[in-house]
C-alpha cells in the first residue's frame, strides 16, 4: 500500500521504501527511508526519532538480513535523529558529509557568525556522523555500492547517493534526499540553505543520466531529466520575477513575497520568504542587486 506509514514497499530489486509516520505541509506524506541491497543492507535516512518507525524498518528485513550501514542525506530533524538510536542499537556506524553546519559557503558562514541571519529551522544539531564522506566517495558492501554526491543548497551538509540501476546497468538510480523532490521544490533557507550552491549542485545532477530518482518525500521521479530541468527553470524564473519586481522600484522581502507568491496559501509565505531571501543573497553576491542597509531579512532591495 503506497504512502502508508510502516509498510515496506519494494520499488526495484534491492530497493525497499518504508514511510515514516510524520506527515506535514513540509514533509508531504512523511519521510521516506530506504533499504538498499539484500542480506547485509544499507539504510538511507532512518528519519525522525520514532520507535514505531524503527520497528517498521527492522520488520522490513527478510529472514537472516541485517542492516550494516546507515547513510544520512542531511541533518534535518525529519531525516537524521533515528540514525543515532539505530546505530547504537545495532552496533553499526552512521555515514554522512558531516554535522549540521558542515558544507556552508564562506558567505553563509559569515552571515551565521555575525548574527545577520537566524537559521536552524528543523536542524538536528546533535547529529555527527561516525564516518565522514566526501563527494565522490563510493562505499561497497555485499551486493550494493553507493556513491556520495555533495549537493549543498537545501542544507550545507546535504548528500545524494547514487547506485547502479539493478534493472538498467547503463544508468544510475539517485537517492536525492530533499535536494530533488517530485511534489515540491526544496526549501532554501539561509544561512543553512544557499541558492548559489543549490543551483550549482542541481546543474551537476542534471549533467548525469538517471533512470529514476527516489527522494526524501513523495513518490519516485520517473523522468529525472525533465524534473531536474524544471527545477532549474523554476528557480531561474523566480530570480527573473524578483528582478522584474525590483525594476519597478525598491522592495522588501515581505513585499516581494506578497507579489510573487500571491497564489500561495499565506501559511506557506514564511517559507517562501526564505526562498526569496536566498535568491537575493545570491543576487547581491553577484552585484546585480543592492541591499540597504545590508543583505538580510529586513533590508530594502534595489537593482544594482
Task: Give the key terms.
five-stranded mixed sheet, elongated, 304 residues, Arc Repressor Mutant, subunit A, seven-stranded mixed sheet, 25% strand, 7 helices, single chain, 15 strands, alpha/beta, 2 domains, Metallo-beta-lactamase, Chain A
Mean pLDDT, as a whole number? 95
Q: Looking at CATH, which topology of the largest domain would you report?
A: Metallo-beta-lactamase, Chain A
**Rg of Cα set:** 20 Å
What structural class should be given to the helix and strand makeup?
Answer: alpha/beta
Give the class-level CATH name of the largest domain.
Answer: Alpha Beta
Q: Which stretches are low in confidence, meaning pLDDT under 50 for 5 or more residues running? A: none
Helix content: 25-40%
CATH architecture identity of the largest domain:
4-Layer Sandwich
The CATH homologous superfamily name of the largest domain equals: Ribonuclease Z/Hydroxyacylglutathione hydrolase-like
Shape: elongated
Beta-strand content estimate: 25-35%
Most strands sheet: 7 strands, mixed
Spatial arrangement of strands, main beta sheet: 1-2-3-4-5-6-7
| Euclidean distance between termini CA atoms | 53 Å
Number of beta-strand segments: 15
> How are helices and strands ordered from N to C?
EEEEHEHEHEEEEEHEHEHHEE
Number of helices: 7
Number of domains: 2
Amino acid at each position: 500500500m503506497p504512502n502508508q506509514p510502516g509498510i515496506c514497499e519494494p520499488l526495484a530489486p534491492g530497493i525497499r521504501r518504508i514511510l515514516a509516520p510524520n506527515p506535514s505541509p513540509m514533509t508531504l506524506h512523511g519521510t521516506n527511508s530506504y533499504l538498499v541491497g539484500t542480506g547485509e543492507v544499507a539504510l538511507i535516512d532512518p528519519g525522525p526519532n520514532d520507535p514505531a518507525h524503527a520497528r517498521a524498518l527492522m520488520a522490513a528485513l527478510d529472514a537472516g538480513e541485517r542492516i550494516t550501514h546507515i547513510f544520512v542525506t542531511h541533518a534535518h530533524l525529519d531525516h537524521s535523529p533515528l540514525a543515532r538510536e539505530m546505530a547504537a542499537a545495532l552496533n553499526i556506524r552512521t555515514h554522512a558529509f558531516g554535522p549540521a553546519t558542515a558544507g556552508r559557503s564562506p558567505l553563509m558562514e559569515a552571515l551565521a557568525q555575525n548574527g545577520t541571519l537566524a537559521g536552524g529551522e528543523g536542524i538536528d544539531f546533535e547529529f555527527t556522523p561516525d564516518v565522514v564522506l566526501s563527494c565522490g566517495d563510493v562505499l561497497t558492501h555485499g551486493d550494493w555500492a553507493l556513491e556520495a554526491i555533495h549537493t549543498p543548497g537545501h542544507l550545507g551538509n546535504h548528500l545524494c547517493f547514487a547506485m547502479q540501476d539493478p534493472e538498467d546497468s547503463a544508468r544510475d538510480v539517485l537517492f536525492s534526499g530533499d535536494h530533488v523532490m517530485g511534489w515540491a521544490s526544496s526549501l532554501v533557507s539561509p544561512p543553512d540553505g544557499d541558492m548559489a550552491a543549490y543551483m550549482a549542485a542541481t546543474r551537476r545532477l542534471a549533467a548525469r543520466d538517471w533512470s529514476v530518482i527516489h527522494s526524501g518525500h513523495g513518490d519516485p521521479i520517473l523522468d529525472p531529466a525533465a524534473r531536474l530541468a524544471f527545477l532549474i527553470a523554476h528557480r531561474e524564473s523566480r530570480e527573473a520575477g524578483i528582478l522584474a519586481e525590483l525594476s519597478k522600484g525598491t522592495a522588501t522581502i515581505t513585499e516581494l513575497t506578497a507579489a510573487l507568491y500571491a497564489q500561495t496559501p499565506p501559511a506557506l509565505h514564511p517559507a517562501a520568504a526564505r526562498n526569496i531571501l536566498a535568491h537575493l543573497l545570491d543576487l547581491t553576491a553577484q552585484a546585480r542587486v543592492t541591499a540597504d542597509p545590508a543583505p538580510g531579512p529586513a533590508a530594502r532591495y534595489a537593482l544594482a
